[in-house]
Amino acid sequence: MKVFEWKNPHDIPYKAFKPGSATIGVFDGLHLGHASLVSRVVSRAPGYLPIVFTFKNNPKKAVRHNYTHDALFTMRQKLEILESMGVGLCVLIDFSRNFSKLSGKDFVSILVNAFGVRAFVVGKDFKFAYQHSSDSNALRQMAQELGAETEVMDALSLNGAVVSSSRIRKAIMEGRTDLAFAMLGRPYSIDLQEAKPDYIDGRLYVDLGAMSM
C-alpha cells in the first residue's frame, strides 16, 4: 500500500495512473461500519485502484479546541489494517485552515480530476467541506456532474444502535470490552511503539516539498 501525505489542497501528492474507487473519513478505530465501506471500495479492484482518504490529524481537534478524545488506534495500527484489507493507496490529509475553507465542489473536483476517483463509497450520514456544508446527497450530485458515481451505504447497527467510534470509546471506558470488540470486529490493543516522523513500518510519507511532479 502506498501512503501519501496531502498538505495543501492544491498540491497533489499523487499522479493517477488508473481510475480509483475511494472512501473518505476519519475512520477512528476502523470499526465494522468503516470496514464495510472500505471492503466495498476494495471489491471494485482490479478495475479500480482502492483508495482511502483519511486524516493525519482529526479535523475535530483542528476546529474544536475543547475536543480532547484520543484516537482509538494509532496511525500505525490504522495503516496496517487498511493494508490488510487490500487498500492500494492511502492519502493522509493534513487538515489545516486551507482544507477547512475548501468548498465541497472544489474538494470533489480535486479528487476526481487530480486523484482519478471515478467511484465514491460513503455512509448515509457522511458530511464534508466547509462547516460540514455538504453531505452524501451533495456528493452524489457533484460527482455525477464530473462523470463519477457514488454509492451511499446505510449505517451498520449492533444491538439496536449504530456502530460508532464514540460508542466504542464509551464501551471501553465502562469496561464493556466484549461490546467494544464486537463493534470493532477485532480485539482492542494499545500500540506502545513510537513511530518515526517520516516512516511507519516501511511506508514512506511523501513530503510534497520534496517531490517533483
Q: What features would you highlight for this structure?
A:
single chain; about 210 residues; six-stranded parallel β-sheet; 12 strands; globular; disordered C terminus
Instruction: Calculate the terminal CA-CA distance, rounded to whole Å.
Output: 20 Å
The gross shape turns out to be: globular
Number of helices: 8
Strand order of the largest sheet: 1-4-3-2-5-8
Radius of gyration: 17 Å
Strand content: 15-25%
Class by SSE composition: alpha/beta
Q: Regarding quaternary structure, how should these chains be classified? A: single chain
- Tell me the major beta sheet: 6 strands, parallel
Output mean pLDDT.
85
Write the H/E string, N to C. EEHEHHEHHEEEHEEEHHEE
> Low-confidence segments, ≥5 residues, pLDDT <50?
194-213
- In total, the number of strands is 12
Q: What percent of the residues sit in helical stretches (DSSP H or I)?
A: 25-40%
Please render the helix and strand layout as text:
Elements: E1 2-6, E2 20-24, H1 32-42, E3 49-55, H2 59-63, H3 75-84, E4 89-93, H4 97-100, H5 104-113, E5 117-123, E6 127-128, E7 134-135, H6 136-145, E8 149-153, E9 157-158, E10 161-162, H7 165-173, H8 177-184, E11 199-200, E12 203-204
Helix pairs in contact: 5-6, 7-8
Please explain how this structure is put together.
This protein has 213 residues and is α/β, with parallel strands linked by helices. The protein has 8 helices and 12 strands. Strands 1-4-3-2-5-8 form a 6-stranded parallel beta sheet, with helices on both faces. The chain has a two-stranded antiparallel sheet with strand order 6-7. A hairpin with a 5-residue loop joins strand 6 (127-128) and strand 7 (134-135). The two termini are 20 Å apart. Mean pLDDT is 85; it is low at 194-213.
